[in-house]
Amino acid sequence: MKKVIVFAAAVFLSMSGIADDHKGGSKGDLFSEADLDGDGRVSTDEHEVMIQEMADRGRTRFNSMDADGDGFVTRKEAKANRREKMKQRKLERQKAKHFLED
Ligand SMILES: [Ca+2]
Ligand SMILES: [Ca+2]
Questions:
Q1: Is the residue at 58 inside a domain?
Q2: What does the alpha-carbon distance between residue 15 and residue 34 come to, in Å, rounded to a whole number?
Q3: Residue 76 domain-assigned?
């Protein structure tokens, strides 16, 4: 399992620059995010911190999908969660639009 997460982190690192939705509006640059001391390189420690953060985020996401909290995400729960997220995004867009129009 850990190997899979490490691989995922490596893939994310190599795709740095892809839009990142967890930080409000800022263009996510995962490489810069991982490079905590800003020396232009990612050390094993920095990499591990990032993996931990990704795991935490993944867990949070999982918990938000697992509506009945039984430790499993069913197809139904995943679908409902996706629908809920889309609804929220739509609402946020509408709010932003109203804000701009006022
Ligand atoms: Ca560094
Ligand atoms: Ca469940």
A1: yes
A2: 12
A3: yes
Please, which residues have CB less than 5 A from ligand 1, an ion?
Answer: 35, 37, 39, 41
In a domain, 85, yes or no: yes
Residue 81 to residue 79: CA distance in whole angstroms? 5
* C-alpha 100 chain-centroid distance: 27
Expressed in angstroms and rounded, the spacing between residue 73 Cα and the centre of ligand 2 is 5
Cα-to-centroid distance, 76 and ligand 2 (Å): 9
How far, in Å, is the centroid of ligand 1 from the Cα of 70?
Answer: 39
- Report how many domains make up the chain: 1
Rounded distance between C-alpha atoms, residue 89 and residue 102, angstroms: 20
For 64-96, write each residue's pLDDT tens digit: 999 999 999 999 999 999 999 999 999 999 999
Domain containing residue 43: CATH number: 1.10.238
Percent of the chain with pLDDT over 90: 65
How remote is the CA of residue 36 from the centroid of ligand 1, in Å?
Answer: 5
